[in-house]
Design goal:
Radius of gyration: 17 Å
Shape: globular
Low-confidence stretches: none
Strand order of the largest sheet: 1-2
Order of helices and strands: HHEEHHHHHH
Mean pLDDT: 83
Largest sheet: 2 strands, antiparallel
Distance between the termini: 41 Å
Number of helices: 8
Structural class: mainly alpha
Number of strands: 2
Helix content: 55-70%
């Protein structure tokens, strides 16, 4: 689901920038297909095989599809996209949120039992689900005015800012901070630099 969602975001954003209504329409159709076929009782599947949901969706699957739905909403404002994004964000928060330290676990709390639960924050071939999810929270706050979204985003970004001091692979988190999607990011950074 995650890679398909990245394609949906690119198509929706590109279509909006270029005035290509067909690109937006194709993205909307693909999003509808994912929402109808890849949803499970608890969230998203990891992938579709022969049009059937397979595996347990991870933080990336949820976060990237939420971002794609928000991109679609911004490209062609239809409340169903925003409603679906809010619903998926609720599933992500219920099943993946680290309520003690902020950010999101890679796998759900109701998934298979693991010795160690990972919470990836470093970008790789695709941006990390945590950085994308934090940006989604800020976008949802801007769209809905719900302060709880902003509070979770601030907590996740604070953790990413601290970690980025030691790890240059946090590209998406740094981008979100640089683009001022989190106005207090500069204060967090300055506070951290006081230690040096």
């Amino acid at each position: 689901v995650s890679w398909t969602a990245l394609m949906l975001s690119a198509s929706a954003r590109g279509g909006a920038m270029l005035g290509d209504a067909d690109a937006i329409l194709r993205a909307a159709r693909a999003a509808d297909r994912l929402l109808t076929r890849a949803r499970t009782d608890t969230g998203l599947a990891r992938y579709l095989f022969e049009d059937a949901p397979q595996g347990t969706g991870l933080v990336d699957d949820h976060g990237f599809l939420i971002a794609a739905l928000l991109d679609l909403f911004e490209a062609q404002p239809e409340l169903r996209c925003l409603d679906a994004a809010i619903e998926l964000q609720g599933a992500l928060d219920r099943r993946f949120l680290d309520r003690e330290h902020g950010g999101y676990w890679m796998g759900p709390s109701d998934g298979e039992t693991l010795w160690v639960r990972a919470k990836p924050i470093a970008d790789g071939a695709e941006p990390t689900g945590n950085a994308v999810s934090a940006s989604n929270l800020l976008r949802l706050h801007q769209l809905t005015g719900d302060a709880a979204y902003r509070e979770r985003a601030e907590q996740a970004h604070a953790r990413q800012v601290q970690a980025s001091m030691d790890d240059p692979r946090l590209v998406e988190a740094a981008t979100a901070i640089r683009e001022n999607r989190l106005p207090d990011a500069g204060a967090l950074l300055r506070e951290h630099l006081k230690e040096y």
